[in-house]
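Researcher: For the record, we're logging two predictions in this thread. I'll number them. Prediction 1 follows.
Model: Prediction 1, sequence and structure:
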Amino acid sequence: VEVGRIAKVEELRLIAELKTVEGKLAGLDGAESGIRARLASLLDVASFTDSISLTTNLPQFMFLTSDSISLRPDIIAVKEQEKAAHSGVKAAWGAYLPQIVAVADWQQNQGYNGMGTDDAIWQVTIQAKLPLWNGGRRRANISQAKAQRKAAKYQLQTQRDNALAEIISARGAWNAAKAQYEAAVSAIKASEEVTRIQTDRFDQGRLSATDLVDAEASLAFARSELTSSLARWWKADDSLRKAIGQPPIEYLNEISDKIK
């Protein structure tokens, strides 16, 4: 009777775990459908049904320098704003300072009957325009342009600091994802060894079928975690590339293949 109760309990436990797994699979199917719907929206198509396979290649370590943020679109945009602010200061000073204009004129006198020779007149005029008083408008324009230049300079520095902080965070996430993948590889090896030992024990009649199923389930979970950890590592790699203003490596490979 006691053995029968234990078997019934194990059966119920396995059924509960099966339902849990089925629930997780349903959740994954829903997540996949949502991702495919977003991809279809981005590609402006009715649906995205292409098969997707995760690459077995591993992300490669990237050496970063202080100039790694120079390709970021936001950094480029702020730099252009700073250049425009510098030009605004020069333009304001140009309107404030005196203006000197040189005009050259040349005329030739043909005479009464058009037979005049060597009767040319050269005339050069230099004009200087000096603004005397305009209510301080020009000086105010200069002050405004300088303030805009200073604001653009501070904005560029702030954008650089934010970009560097984003890169540091992305690098940390990349290292963490790499460590998780390496841990998953180690877990695979351990689970494979445990499953091998449990299988031998089961063949020798020293292990129940339930324990063998648990070992095989642990191995399957370890393999799933290995795939998930590799996907997270590639996601972290894409985030790091985005932080330095570069597209994902797979996009570059696709463009390279099209060029070839």
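Researcher: Logged. Prediction 2.
Model: Prediction 2, sequence and structure:
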Amino acid sequence: GVGTCLTNRNKYFNELFKVILLTAIAKSTSERYIDCNIVLGLPIQYFKEKDFKQRVIDTFKDYKEENITVDGVSKTINIHNVNVWLEGGIVTLFAEKFIDKKVVIIDIGGYTVDIIEFIYNKPQANKTEMKGVLKLKNKILENVNIDNNATIEDIDDILDAIINRKEYIINKNPIDINKYQSIIMVYLNEIFNILNVSFNLDDKLLLFIGGGSILLEKYIKEFDKDYNLEIIKDEFINARTFQDLSNELYRELEKESKNS
């Protein structure tokens, strides 16, 4: 279904991604007629492919006079300029902070865990695993349903109780918080095992970002005795990266246009 559609390399060229992008643009402003420039994030393996990058840019530059209705309001969107940048490339926001550091960024999203290594602000190795936090949630809820006959209405409260170590009662029986917390630790151990196998972590700062990292902050911190790690508690950190990059890129473009 949707998850597969939005996690493979061809997602940028299907109709669902187009609708999601146009909806996001439409909701970002009260204007009815929108002229815009965009910056798109690509995983490093795609970012390195010159032809693929160009295909992405050409695809979105073709979005002209696109009509979409959001919250009952009809809007028209024109995309004029398109640039691409690295997903997880948040070091651009902290360039001075990381200029003399070796950093591994771990972005725990809904469907994937995207890992990219930067040495002195330059991208090096990378890895993407289909181990997003939704996989963890499904594992927990699968076990809760087997043990406690939980209903769909209980899901969010159950997860909150487990993650925040609070008591939760279903059908007059408390759920076994410790059991489900162990599932979280197994999940994180898998991520740290991937890091250790795929990267040399000596003298590296492990920088955790993304909604999954924020959600599991308390558990990730339990690894700080063995690793130099930091968690950025800003769920919009990637969006802010691209916003800053967009402002800089298109400010320069405007200057060149005026001088020509």
